Amino acid sequence: MIMSPAANIDNHMFSPNIGWRVAPIMSELQAQTILDHYDSISKSDRYYADRLRYFGYSTELFYKDIADRDIVSMEGNLVLIRDAILEGPFMFFSGIYKLDYSMRVSMFVPI
Prior knowledge:
The protein is 27% helix and 13% strand. By secondary structure, the chain is α/β, with parallel strands linked by helices.
């Protein structure tokens, strides 16, 4: 069987580390309402930040912080982290990346 990752966007059974979810889920869409009550700039991944900017929210990317494992630099910011970032591959700069460390543990986030 010949399988191209570009052609295999809806089934990640044979390539679980190269596919990422493209559509937002309901909880991600609902989470943006917290920004109605937040006056500063939030941080998130490109996928989510681009959607938030479309709706008029001020959002910065946290990719450099993740790449450098510099979680402390995000202290004091509202950081919106999707489960997709914690659990699987996601769009990172211009490629697909999967964390090789636990961001939950690094940020002391309870499950």
